[in-house]
Amino acid sequence: MLTSITSVNYQVCFNEVAYQNLNNHLKSSNYSKVFLLVDEKTHELCLPHFMSKIEGDYEFEIIEIAEGEVFKTIETCTGVWNALSELGADRKSVMINIGGGVVTDLGGFVAATFMRGINFINVPTTLLAMVDASVGGKTGVDLGTLKNQVGVFSTPQLVMIDVAFLKTLPAEQMRSGLAEMLKHGLIADANYWDQLKNLESLGMDSLGALIHQSVIIKNDVVTQDLKESNLRKKLNFGHTLGHAIESYLLANDSRETLLHGEAIAIGMILAAYLSTQTDVLSFKECEEIKQVMAKYYKKVSFTENDIANIIELMKFDKKNARGNINFVLLKEIGNVSIDVKINNELIFSAFEYYKK
């Protein structure tokens, strides 16, 4: 059995224990109404399983949003806020967010701002949301194609991880989540990284244990620095360029978009190369990182113009300060440096390395 993990004011619970805790919480909290936020896919594929585990008679209202990153917007929030109002939500209501990172990020933001804050519970249904988006108290939405530009820190009452939901996921969504797990190994635990290098040989039971370890790693960082003033920045390894790549492709109708994890995998290869140029990461470890990423993720081509536009987008990264673009780089696998400044020439060199 996977033990529950205590975070900042809430617990991350797994499988059957998660449902026991949810039922106890609903029973003791006496909520006026329970709102279930889903997208089109989780409404069909995940909600029936979730509802089969509920004990007790509650007044449920289902709010469905469109599925996908392009709908992670203030406009979608406005629709959900209006639905809450029309359906009689008050400050004693609770919202349960059942879905991937878009649903848990957006749902948490809606709950944190509706009537100045109502309780919410996260039920991540994708691997990415289980190991990253649903844990840590970050909520928010995109501003145009700029990732997570509007949001607040707000902690849920409970995070429920049910590995059974992963059976509904296509392979590319599993790979997207794997990128964040690989990142956790690279920034904090070389042994964990070694386990993940051959994930294809592992079954669902092993995957549950690995997800548990990923949450422990992220939670250990978050509980020390909830508002990202210092230590939490290490979780952004691969994200400075990765988010810019993701945003750039989202904004270009002529280019195929990437899932979050696919973009972050490219960002991690680029950051690994930059680490060899500015820090003490060995080229051997850099090559190892590139080979592992290449095993799981497709290669994407970038022109010089693409790279220039991606660099321009990096100035919107939330970790920047006083106009400086700050990178998280590796000293070695399992150990990082934060707030490293990099010039554009080195970034072009990193893309050359990626191209080869």
Describe this structure as you would to a colleague.
It is a single chain. Helices cover 49% and strands 16% of the residues. By secondary structure, it is an alpha/beta fold. The chain contains 14 helices and 11 strands. It starts with a strand and ends with a helix. Helix 10 crosses helix 11. A 7-stranded mixed sheet has the order 1-2-9-6-5-3-4, sandwiched between helices. Strands 7-8 form a two-stranded antiparallel sheet. The model has no long low-confidence stretch (mean pLDDT 93). The protein is globular and about 60 Å long.
Outline:
This protein is of the alpha/beta class and 356 residues long.
Oligomer: single chain
Widest sheet: strand order? 1-2-9-6-5-3-4
> What is the straight-line distance between the termini?
44 Å
What percentage of residues falls in helices of 4 or more residues?
40-55%
Shape: globular
Mean pLDDT: 93
Major β-sheet profile: 7 strands, mixed
Helix-strand pattern, N to C?
EEHEHHEHEHEHEEEHHHHHHHEEH
Q: How many E-type strands?
A: 11
Q: Structural class, from secondary structure content?
A: alpha/beta
Amount of beta strand: 15-25%
Low-confidence stretches: none
Number of helices: 14
Radius of gyration from the CA trace?
20 Å
